[in-house]
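## tool: complex_structure
## caller: assistant
## args:
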Amino acid sequence: MQRFYEVMFIVRPDTLDEDVDKLIAGFEATVTNGGGTIRSTEKLGRRKLAYLVRKFSEGNYILLTIDADGKLVAELERRLRVSEPVIKFITVRMDEEQKRIDKIKAIRATRKKLSAQPVAPAPVEAVEAPAEATPASA
Amino acid sequence: MADETTTPKAPEGGAPHAGGPGGPRGPRTGGPGGPGGPGGRKFFRRKKVCKFCTEKIDAIPYRDVRLLQGFVAERGKIVPRRLTGVCTTHQRRLTRAIKQARNIALLPFAARY
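## result:
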C-alpha cells in the first residue's frame, strides 16, 4: 500500500554541506531500494530552533516528500533515529489531506463554471425586468 | 430594559460568554469578547469570522510558521476559538498543525524566560 508522506528532519548545524548531501543521498537510496519513490527533496536551510534540541539552538531543515508503504517508513525512521547528525525528525502522512484538498478544489472548479455562465444572461434579464415593470405601473 | 435590547444585537450570542469565565478575560487579547450587558459600557462587537473560511485556505500545513504564529499566544499556547473566531473544523486542523510544528521545533512548547 503506497502512501504519500512528508518526512522532515533536522541536521546538526555543525555538519558540512557535503556531508548533508551524502546523508540525503543515503536516505533517498533507502527509499528507492525499499520500493518507494521520491517526489521531491527540499533543503529548507538553516533555521533557529524554537527550543534547544540536544543543546543546539540552530538546525538545518530538510524535507523529503515520498511515496512509501508502512514498512519502509518504519525502516526510514529507524535509520533517522540511529544516524548521528540527525537531531530531530517528523513523518506526516499527507495522502488523506491531499485527497480532501483535491476534492474541495474540484468542487470549487465546478462552482466557478456555474457562476461564470449566468453572468452573461443576467444583464439581459435586468433590462427586461424594468421593461415589464413599467407597463404594469403605467 | 435598555441593556436587554443591546445584548441581542451582539453577534454570536456573546451574552453567555460575558457572564461566564470569559468576562474577566475580555480585555486580554480578544477585546471583542468583553462584557456587553450590565456595566452600561457598550462595545461595538465586531463579528468574528474564521480566517480560513473567508480566505479559503484549504490546507493548514505545519511548515507555515507565519500562519501558525498568528494563532499562538506569546507564551506558546494555542489561542482558543472564542478569541480568534476560527470555526470548529479549522481550529481542529490548526491545533494539529501547531502540535506537529512544535514537535519539529518550528514552534515552542513554552516560551523561555
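## assistant note: Chain B touches chain A through 15 residues (CB under 8 Å). The helical segments of chain B are 2-9, 15-19, 22-25, 51-54, 65-69, 81-84, 88-103. Handing back to user.
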